[in-house]
Amino acid sequence: MNGPAPTLQVEGLRTHFFTKVGVVKAVDDVSFSVDRGEVLGLVGESGSGKSVTGFSILGLVDPPGRITDGRILFKGEDLVGRSESQWRTLRGARIAMIFQDPMMTLNPVLRIDTQMIEAIRAHEKVSDATARQRARDALGQVGIPSPDERLKAYPHQFSGGMRQRVAIAIALINKPDLIIADEPTTALDVTIQAQILFEAQKLCRETGTALIWITHDLTVVAGLADRICVMYAGKIVEQGRIDDVLDRPLHPYTHGLIGSVPSRNKRGQPLEQIPGMTPSLMNPPPGCGFRARCARAAAECVRDPDITSPVDGRQIRCFHPHLEDA
Amino acid sequence: MLVFTIRRLMQSVIVLFVMSLIVFIGIYAVGNPVDILINPEADIAEQEATIRRLGLDRPLWSQYFSFLNSALYGDLGTSFVHNEPALELIFERLPATLEIAVGAVGLAIVIGIPAGMVAGLRPDSLIGKTIMSGSILGFSLPTFWVGLMLIMLFAVMLGWLPASGRGDTVDLFGVPVSFLTWDGLTHILLPAFNLALFKMSLVIRLSRAGTREVMLQDYVKFSRAKGLSESRVILVHVLKNILIPVVTVLGLELGNVIAFAVVTETVFAWPGIGKLLIDSIGLLDRPVVVAYLLLTVTMFILINFVVDVLYSVLDPRVRLGDMKS
Ligand SMILES: Nc1ncnc2c1ncn2[C@@H]1O[C@H](COP(=O)(O)OP(=O)(O)O)[C@@H](O)[C@H]1O
Ligand code: SF4
Ligand SMILES: [Mg+2]
Predict the structure, then answer these.
(1) pLDDT tens-place string over residues B61-83
(2) Which of A259, B2, B30, B162 is deepest in the core (most CB within 10 A)?
(3) Percentage of chain A surpassing pLDDT 70?
(4) How far apart are CA A315 and CA A246, in angstroms?
(5) Which of B228, B314, B316 is nearest residue A118 as measured by Cβ atoms?
């Protein structure tokens, strides 16, 4: 590849949890990349390994989990195998993360200003006044009214939506190159979801920050992302430009997902559902993880399908993709 | 806050009243102080004079009402034995008890919280397991036995520390204290540690459980995701959260520490109110016993109040007005 390296490039990442009862292959050979100002949607049902992917990029995988293979290239430099202190200089400074539940991400016994200022001072030696000023500006930036007053408040004095804005402000505060947003709007109601989504996207585009938006809800990323990765059972099964994937899903799983979104169904027809359940990631058998639920499964599906690119700009992991309905 | 205080105050008065009644009747049931106090060789007239002077000739209810009457003016009676106001007797000995009680709580915090956090952060390590075994011992060994063992080891066998008494004292704001002289400090160490042992075990368990729970919270992971150093995560984000239950329980236990001091004071011949109580019970010195118990109850009430206030300072989610008291 020519030109500057993309903001983040993940190659063959495997993150496994070595529990007493077996190995959980939460992330198993995942590759994708995001570039400056780009929004990547990472979609998959609950338990498919999205959060673990996010935490792997921050070097925050909880034991007994660890990255067993692969590379995480941040601006061209591999992070895997770095020391804890090297990770720490990146966390919150160059790579920031927003968590799912805004009620749980802020420390209940510390004031907002404390929690914002410490995020600045962990990376920069600045005076208290400067840090406070920056915290104030960050709150204003995410649309929190009277930021001066709100800085002195405790988390419980904010609504869920406002808390998530504070978390976003903390993520933005050091002007990171990459933000990983792990289902940040799932716990919020729909109108606030849309607002936050829109604003986060706008902020990233303005600052050139790359954004990975994790969600289990395809409709959330439909109007937001540039590209999309569909994750299933620890693997990315389909990847491409958002419009291409939505218009013409190739992988049977994506096909089923899109079929189950109400607005895309023809009126009066029953919702299509994907039969069966998410397989356990504990000691998974070899072969395509979707085959127990796949209508197109055939004999060769007991082997692991490789990543192929049957259509330009698309990548899938399937022996029998939906190529015929073009 | 005002409503909360007033409600508390009214409850306290009722508790004190009921308490005094129970103690009065209780001591009356235990035995007749006259049998102990009066010299059997004195003649009848002399004996009767003493009985009348102490008011013991009147029926119990009448004695109780005159007690209540003077109690309203702050007079809790005069010791039958020492012939001194009961309150004065207690206040003379109170500083000694407070000193080991505060010392004990201090030790429990200073040793218990770090030990509990280490055990919580490394539950499967050798040190974590050692700390937990130690806390089980601290819970289960009886205070008087540990006290005797401490004396045997440090005073008798090693000869490092004195076995009894307060040692040299100096006056601090007119109150004699031991901890400001070297000699006094060596005297206070063993009894304070003995008294602390139980609370320390409690603090260790609370801190360990708290640490383990808090470490799993999203906000700890989020604080790491902000790039904070591990020491800031643990010393600010984790510690501040576990302090809430620890302070609450310890505060509530401060009264208990003073009550438990009875055993430790007896073992170490520490001249505090615990020892005074034991001696007074032995002599059926009712005014002193009543005064001691009323004072202790008042102290419990005060401590609970202070803890509630402190709690609301530590935990911003608590508002005193909403609290069920
Ligand atoms: N600490 C852990 N120990 C063991 N397994 C874990 C741990 N964290 C996550 N997992 C497993 O990893 C898999 C992926 O989890 P996760 O990334 O949280 O899914 P998602 O975010 O897509 O809902 C799940 O099967 C989960 O059980
Ligand atoms: S590889 Fe086979 S089982 Fe897996 S999705 Fe494709 S067709 Fe279905
Ligand atoms: Mg998740």
Answers:
(1) 888 888 888 888 878 888 888 88
(2) B162
(3) 93
(4) 14
(5) B228
- Which tokens belong to B281? 């019970």
Could you report the per-residue pLDDT of B196-246, keeping only the tens digit for each?
999 999 999 999 999 999 999 999 999 999 999 999 999 999 999 998 888
Q: Which residues of A touch B222 (CB under 8 A)?
A: 97, 99, 105-106, 167
Please tell me the residue having the least CA distance from ligand 1 atom 4.
Answer: A17
The amino acid occupying position B126 is L
* Rounded distance between C-alpha atoms, residue A204 and residue A211, angstroms: 7
B chain contacts of residue A92, beta-carbon cutoff 8 Å: 225-228
Report CA(A237)–ligand 2 centroid distance (Å). 10
**pTM (two decimals):** 0.79
Domains and CATH numbers, chain A: 8-81+227-325 (3.40.50.300)
Number of Cβ within a 10 Å radius of residue A172: 21
Whether B225 and A58 lie within 8 Å, measured CB to CB: yes
Report the pLDDT value the prediction gives residue A267, as an integer from 0 to 100.
Answer: 54
Q: Return the amino acid letter for A304.
A: D
Which atom of ligand 1 approaches the CA of A182 most closely?
Answer: 21
Nearest by CB to residue A91, choosing from B227, B236, B237, is B227
d(CA A101, CA A109): 17
Question: Cβ of A104 and B217 within 8 Å?
Answer: yes
> In the predicted model, is pLDDT for residue B188 greater than 50?
yes
**Domains of chain B and any CATH numbers:** 86-324 (1.10.3720.10)
**Cβ distance of A108 and B228 shorter than 8 Å:** no
- Can you tell me the distance from the alpha carbon of A291 to that of A300, in angstroms, rounded to the nearest whole number? 10
Length of chain A: 326
